[in-house]
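Hi C.,

You asked whether I'd gotten around to modeling the 640-residue construct. I have! Everything is below, sequence then structure, no commentary in between.
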Amino acid sequence: MPIDFRNTNTLWSSILAETLQRLGLTTAVICPGSRSAPLTIAFAQNHNIESIPVLDERSASFFALGIAKKSGLPVALICTSGTAAANFYPAIIEARESRIPLLIFTADRPPELRDCHAGQAIDQVKIYGNYPNWQAELAMPATSLEMLGYLRQTIAYAWERTQFPTPGPVHLNIPFRDPLVPVSDIAVEALETQFDMEDFFAGLEPIVAGEISTPPNPPLLRGGVGRGSAIEPSHPLLKGGVGSAIKQWQKCSRGIIIAGVAQPQFPEQYCRAIAQISQSLNWPVLAEGLSPLRNYAQLNPHLISTYDLILRNGELADKLTPEIAIQIGDLPTSKELRNWLDKTQPKRYIIDPSHHNFDPLHGRTIHLRISPENLATVVSPQVPPLTNTQSTQVPPLTNTQSTQVPPLTKGGLGGVLTSESNEYLQLWHNTETKVRQAIDQKISAIQNIIEPKVSWLLSQILPAGTPIFIANSMPVRDVEFFWQPNNLKIQPFFNRGANGIDGTLSTALGISHRNQSCIMLTGDLALLHDTNGFLIKNKLVGHLTIILINNNGGGIFEMLPVAKFDPPFEEFFATPQDINFAKLCATYGVEHEIIDDWELFQAKLSFLPNRGIRVLELATNRRTDAKWRQDNLSKFAPGS
């Protein structure tokens, strides 16, 4: 029996773990500690839950975040009392901002041992402020059937709140009195004969979010029902804001679709949905490098990947001024795009099913709380949505193929449209082709190791379907500038909720765990900020290749005005650390290799190992990299 009747704490904790397992929990990440011992023992003894011990709480929390990103399901995160709980905070902030389901359990001292210097006791109630979707402190463990029922239902509610109405973190603070170890209590052991487990847990079934949106949103479905539901055209929602919006879009001759950062659970369905909307309206899709759209290019003939560089040409930016913009989820990273939208002030419709506000520009926006997958079935009802088992089987590009579409014929790809609409769309297409050719010609000729070429090359050489975690600061920006459209179904992951460098390595390891071989693209400072993540190495089931761009400092700061003020720039902003990464990797037993030419780089990535961690280090000069960007980014657009 998975319920442990040795004492009150073991009974309470095993009921908690069993409830979660029946609801669908598969993974728990557990940090060591005494006060959390009842929880640790309960999860470790539940063989239907994979329990993973991780020493460092900050690393553990981001590792759990990575697993939850990959699976779309809540991951349990457990720690002892005191400052251990505080180390979860950055990951909880990221989970809230990026809408990732986490279920946090912090063990605590009982009330009588608080505020009296009992040791390892801090105020843990609502320690994470307003970031959790929901938070509560559980009652003291008790053995009555009524209290066990309270525990079961509170845990079930907490599980639901990690996913509904918007995915995010939930925090439960759990006080325990001694004994914290499973010593026997005869009175509790006697309860085992009176406990009907099947009756007690009757009605508990796996609960998942119902829509295929990014992230999933309601309704919640019980019993493990699939996520392929779509809104019927007669749905009341479509008679109001959505229906009215579609009518306006269909009349507009100068519209754009902006596909921002996104890591959907079903990327092919997501990409196809946006392609359906685009082709129905005959509008271009400005696709962020951190969107899966650039890796399913064949699905979308109106894909624009060089918008940031195009908009650096003021004359072109004016000609391309839109009347309406459909924004899918978060805005892209591009500051050029944001400034252009702020200047031109198109009417903007934001498509996302969550309750979050996605308009940092505070423009003329209307939030439509619907997923792009469901929107596509309404905008383009004649095209059925993909089910979870369908595939478009997009082949990879050959060396002679191009992602560009041929000139549009009269009427375009989406039906009979005005000539003005075709001219607007064709201007985007023609400019994209020229800028893309200029980028490819310039970067392909570079022989020395330079940071901008890394992202450009990765988009062409990674094995099909490879998950890649992209660190913040310069890597995400180079991906947006240079990531080439392809048909390799590469899966981008990132922590762009709060945009910090906390937990970069640990998150990537979480995505890699029990997944196909993964890549992490990072700078040196982001990796150094989370080297405790290497402690997860022996628990990792899978492989992670770390592409380390070592420019000995914060390259992003070289692109900012503060770089002109030295001192104090070099010491206080660039913060070079002068670390020998070969020795650092040796300390953790991690494979390390210096990459000093592009042929070797390609060879090392043509086939990925299936176990362990390796670091491929490319040494670059951040001042040279920054100067190259400053000299070239504004020159790629025609006429600039």
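If it helps when you're writing up: Residues 211-219, 224-231, 383-418 have pLDDT under 50 and may be disordered.

Thanks,
B.
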